[in-house]
Write a structure and sequence with these properties.
With 270 residues, this protein is of the alpha/beta class. Helix content is 48%, strand content 17%. The chain contains eleven helices and eleven strands. The two termini are 33 Å apart. It binds coenzyme A.
């Protein structure tokens, strides 16, 4: 892991930084395997918003501190106070879901860099990212049935779209943890790396994305999100609009010139 000059949020339990034009959000509560308190959810939202609004940032990586966990889920020690019944749970879900909604609608590409436990609410975060890269030693699971928690529509929608309904049922009914090889096989993660190579490999992919044409990436991101919706809910006008923006852009001219002149393109995002 690099030595980053972080901006601390949520009492230092969420760190926000920019490295080489890449935004990084770190879940930093290693004593609890980065379990997420409500304050951390809110700090997470603040970091996402700040990196979204920073024009120098073209891609955002999410990761956990400590080398043991990405996020081990919501902080169960808070449940007695803030999530003990349906009414409290609704308020809790509202406050944490508002932060995850920022990630669901994020305008820039996002990568979950998973090194260790990725459980419960951690899976929710990882599944909302565009891409999941994980170390060999990582473990995945949603132990909602072991706690008596209903995991909710958004989390299960993403789970089903990644692994299909049968694996979603197996994971949810048993609460089992699976290892990284199985997670790769069922489509929960896109690539596995040796533990020591995970961060560099993640940064390399982030830098590649950063160097590509932002509008072309935006077009892909918007269009893929629409493909995942029910046909009746698809915003085809948004796809058309971003297509026009892209094909009329200075970056498209730059891409063509750079190819013909056999040089690297310099994209500006317009
Ligand atoms: N919420 C609150 N505290 C958590 C936590 C969570 N989700 N996950 C881990 N912790 C705490 C543990 O209570 C422990 O605290 P302590 O040192 O004060 O006892 C500390 O983190 C280390 O965890 P520990 O269980 O001792 O480590 P382990 O390596 O034996 O097991 C896990 C790691 C992640 C498998 C295990 O902690 C676990 O099952 N956590 C809960 C996961 C979960 O149910 N998440 C879904 C929540 S919706």
């Amino acid at each position: 892991m690099p030595n980053l000059s972080n901006k601390p949020l949520a009492d230092g339990k969420i760190l926000q930084d920019v490295v080489d034009g890449v935004g990084v959000v770190t879940f930093n509560n290693p004593d609890k395997h980065n379990a997420m308190s409500l304050e951390m959810w809110e700090g997470f939202g603040e970091a996402l918003a700040a990196l979204r609004d920073d024009d120098t940032v073209r891609v955002v990586i999410l990761r956990g501190a400590g080398g043991k966990a990405f996020v081990s889920g919501a902080d169960i020690s808070q449940f007695e106070k803030v999530r003990h019944n349906a009414a409290a749970s609704e308020e809790y879900a509202r406050r944490s879901a508002a932060q995850r909604a920022l990630l669901a609608d994020y305008p820039k590409p996002t990568i979950a860099c998973i090194d260790g436990y990725c459980l419960g609410g951690g899976m929710q975060v990882a599944m909302l990212a565009d891409i999941r890269l994980a170390s060999h030693g990582s473990q995945f699971g949603i132990p909602a049935a072991r706690l008596g928690i209903a995991y909710g529509y958004d989390g299960l929608r993403h789970l089903v779209s990644l692994v299909g309904p049968a694996w979603a049922r197996l994971l949810m009914y048993t609460g089992m943890r699976i290892d990284s090889a199985e997670a790769l096989r069922i489509g929960l993660v896109e690539r596995l790396l040796p533990d020591a190579e995970l961060w560099d490999a993640t940064m390399e992919i982030a830098r590649t994305i950063s160097g590509n044409a932002p509008l072309a990436i935006k077009a892909a991101k918007i269009t893929i999100a629409q493909v995942l919706k029910d046909p009746a809910d698809r915003d085809m006008a948004a796809i058309k609009q971003v297509g026009i923006e892209c094909m009329d852009s200075a970056d498209f001219r730059e891409g063509r010139s750079a190819f013909m002149e056999k040089r690297e393109p310099q994209f500006k995002g317009r």
